């Protein structure tokens, strides 16, 4: 049983398209995150949701829109994809009020052509 | 500004040797975590050290924390081929409980 699962694992698309990445966690956590890891392996937080409420929104273009239908799911929709969006996107979850240990999904490798 | 900067960026050692990675951060923290990332995979939590702790052990891992120098180190003893991965430190900032990752140290264990 995968604790944090995200789909798809690979995503290849043309510039200008709109795409979504889905994430689900079965750990019962109340906080979920989206991270972007670039080609230099720098891992940067994009968004964080706690109980479906947005709590962290770093400086991310508004073409990126997270959506949390419930606390077990956090999806990421990206409009008008650009070449610079190519990266690996990771979903993670944690339980607030504890040690904030994060559990990561396997990542979605997005390639924009 | 970037927190959790690891040093060195890359490290190659012979199997059986010890590997030491360092981490520096800039502001007060609640705790500091270390994660491992195998190629093509997500990060996996290894160990957490609280701000009032100075050293912690878990199996072949030893973590130290010096809050006066705002630095931490991760020591892996008796390295194995399976330890080949990238290692990230992640300080949890005191001001907003946010965890900040750096670029990691790429560790390569030579057979």
Query: How many individual helices of chain B?
Result: 0
Task: State mean pLDDT of chain A (0 to 100 scale).
Answer: 92
Oligomeric grouping of the chains: heterodimer
CATH first level of chain A: Mainly Beta
The overall pLDDT of chain B, averaged over residues, is: 92
Notes on the structure:
The complex is a heterodimer of chains A (113) and B (111). Chain A is mostly beta strands and 113 residues long. Chain A has one domain: Sandwich (Immunoglobulin-like), CATH 2.60.40.10. Chain A is 0% helix and 56% strand. In chain A, a hairpin with a 2-residue loop joins β5 and β6 (53-57). The model of chain A has no long low-confidence stretch (mean pLDDT 92). With 111 residues, chain B is mainly β. Chain B contains no helices and ten strands. In chain B, the strands form two sheets. In chain B, strands 1-3-8-7-6 form a five-stranded antiparallel sheet, with no helix packed on it. A five-stranded mixed sheet of chain B has the order 2-10-9-4-5, with no helix packed on it. In chain B, a hairpin with a 5-residue loop joins β4 (29-37) and β5 (43-50). Classes of the chains: A mainly beta (113), B mainly beta (111). Chain A binds chain B through residues 4, 35, 40-45, 56, 90, 92, 99-107, and chain B through 30-31, 33, 35, 40-45, 48, 86, 88, 90, 92, 97-104, 106.
């Amino acid at each position: 049983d995968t604790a944090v699962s995200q789909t798809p694992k690979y995503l290849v698309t043309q510039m200008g398209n709109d795409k979504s990445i889905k994430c689900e966690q079965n750990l019962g956590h109340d906080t979920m995150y989206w991270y972007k890891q670039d080609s230099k392996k720098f891992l940067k937080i994009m968004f964080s949701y706690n109980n479906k409420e947005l709590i962290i929104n770093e400086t991310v273009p508004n073409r990126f829109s997270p959506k949390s239908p419930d606390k077990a799911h956090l999806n990421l929709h990206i409009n008008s994809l650009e070449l610079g969006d190519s990266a690996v996107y990771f979903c993670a979850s944690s339980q607030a009020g504890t040690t904030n240990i994060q559990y990561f999904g396997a990542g979605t490798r997005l390639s924009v052509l | 500004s970037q927190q959790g900067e690891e040093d060195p960026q890359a490290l190659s050692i012979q199997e059986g040797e010890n590997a030491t990675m360092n981490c520096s951060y800039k502001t007060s923290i609640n705790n500091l975590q270390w994660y491992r990332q195998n190629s093509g995979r997500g990060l996996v939590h290894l160990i957490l050290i609280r701000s009032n702790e100075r050293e912690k052990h878990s199996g072949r891992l030893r973590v130290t924390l010096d809050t006066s120098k705002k630095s931490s180190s991760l020591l892996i003893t008796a390295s194995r081929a399976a330890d080949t991965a990238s290692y990230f430190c992640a300080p949890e900032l005191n001001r907003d409980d946010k965890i900040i990752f750096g670029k990691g140290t790429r560790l390569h264990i030579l057979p």
